[in-house]
């Protein structure tokens, strides 16, 4: 068999023994000229390829572009590492962190380029890749989504734009960037790739089940969701829910059932992600600068990005950002408090996910009961303590931790 392996146990469930061998990047679907591969959501809500063997001609292209079959072998030291934030206070407040992803996107569109990034679907029931050529369209990509984005057709659109000669910025999870690079098979000079420091993604099923529960509890329809609102600052980000009567509800994201499910129920492949440390196929890797202290010269209470520069192309475009404050730092300091950048979750989280899956998917208990049955004491403290105390608790925690450094 020269096509990608079958990860399906039946029509709705994926095979637990080998489903972690798929990151859902959709490169296989995109490369198949016979349209023999399609991406389908399993019962958990994650996308996996389905092969129509009647159409398959065993060309083997799908296995050649798969970033899991062909592990990333770029494990070099980064050229430069920075902390930074946009000098535009309005923009900084709209972004999840220091705003580097949005700053790069705005620069590209101002130069007549095209940006591909992740946005909510118009009804906020799903997450998908979109295209931006204007500043207004770029702002749809602001903020963290934490849900696997559908990508059907997006790699072909990236290639089409690149072949016109326009500059293209593609931002996404590391596996999506690798899938794109493998699909293109050409090092386009007009392509900039930017990957996120990724703690994993959950499924659209989780997002939808939470939305249905929240609407039922509040008796209102959700018009908009923001998982990283800075109501109480950057360190304690809030889940913002906007309802159809224009009212808003805020709560510490990690004190909500949606935040707990994101941490507890990631895509299986995320638990053994290969893109940790210095493994990367992107020009730039970005994320939150966790571990920063308020005594650091690059401290900003409204968000600081960490930026790992992998290529000269990435370094060159960073130097073009006039309205962005950059401060060079070290790999050791940039990763000291950023565990997702260097290591996967341990066996505890693997077992916790198994328990959550048993309740949520196999027994069909529902999202909220599954969250309640797997939540830690720490979650319940955050869940019941009023949000205005969370910032104080966080500051006290860091005051103790920072003294030990």
Plain-language structure description:
Helices cover 33% and strands 19% of the residues. The protein has helices spanning 27-31, 61-65, 89-94, 100-110, 135-138, 154-163, 174-184, 204-218, 257-264, 312-318, 331-336, 347-362, 367-374, 377-384, 390-403; strands spanning 37-41, 47-51, 80-86, 114-120, 127-132, 168-172, 191-196, 222-229, 238-243, 248-252, 284-288, 305-309, 324-328. The strands form three sheets. The chain has an eight-stranded mixed sheet, sandwiched between helices. It has a three-stranded antiparallel sheet with strand order 8-9-10, covered by helices on one side. Helix 7 (174-184) links the parallel strand 6 (168-172) and strand 7. The longest helix is centred in the last third of the chain and has 16 residues, at 347-362.
